[in-house]
Amino acid sequence: MKQLMEKLLWEMMEYFYSAWTLFHQEHQTFLRRIQELQTQKQIKNTKRLMKSLSLAELANLVPYESFKDLLEQQIRPLRKLSDQFKRNTYSNTDCSYSYFDEYLANLYHGLSILQSEGYQWGLKILDCMEGPTKSTRSKQEEEQEQKMFAHFKENLLPKMQSFKKLFDAARAEIEKLIYFHKDSSILLRSLYFFGQEIIGPSYGPDPEKGFLEFIKKIYAPDHILELYTRVGYSFISSGFFDEARKTVKQAQAFLDKTDYEFTKEGRKRFQDLVSEQSLSAST
Asked: Are 150 and 107 part of one and the same domain?
C-alpha cells in the first residue's frame, strides 16, 4: 500500500507541475496581449479596455485550445489520481490534502465554464463572419445577449487572476504532501532522475535554478546535498552501488562550488555516505 501511495504521489506531481507550467506560460501570454491592446487602443485602464473589446479581439486573447488541453490531458487525469490518493491515504496526518483536492475541483470547474463561454462566443464570431443575416430574435433577447457579453468581458481578467491564485494555492498544498513523504524511495529517486525536468520549469525559466529552489523548500537546510545524500543511501539499501557512486560524485560537485552553503551536520552525513558506499562497493 505504501509503495502504491508513493507512486500515486509522483504521478500527481508529474501532472500538476506540467499543468502549472502550461497555465503560467499562457497566463503570461494573456497579460502580454492585454498590454499590447492597451498600447494599440491607447487605453491604460484595464476595466475600460476590457469593455472595449470585440468578439474577435477576445477570441485572440484567451488561449482556449491550450486550456482545453490543460483540462482534458492534465487536470482531468490529475483529479482521478488525486481522488485515488485521497481514498487510499495511509496517514491521518495528511490533513491539508483536502484543500489540494478542493483547489483542483475549483480549477476544473472554473476552466470548464470558461471553455463553455468561449465556445458560445466562438459560434457568435462564426455567425458574424458569414455576413449579416436577418435576426429572428426579439429585441429583449438581443439586449440579454449584450448584457451577457459585457458580463463576460468584465469578469475575464478577475477570472484569470483567480485561476492563478488557485494554482499557486494548490502548489503550496501538494508541496506539503511532498514534504511529508520526502523520505519515500520512489519520491527520492524520481526527484533525482526527473525532478529538474518536471518541476524546474514551474519555478522559473532556468530549470536547474528552479529545481534547486523547490529542493530548498523540501530538504532544508542542506537542500541539494541532503537530497543526494538520501538518494545515495536509498541506492545502497537496494544494492545499486554504481548509482550510489554516481550520486556521490554529483553531490561532491556541489560541495566544490563556493556559492552553496551547507551545514556541518549535512556535510558529515554526506561523508558518512561516502564511507558507506566505499565499504559497500568493496564487499
From this structure: yes
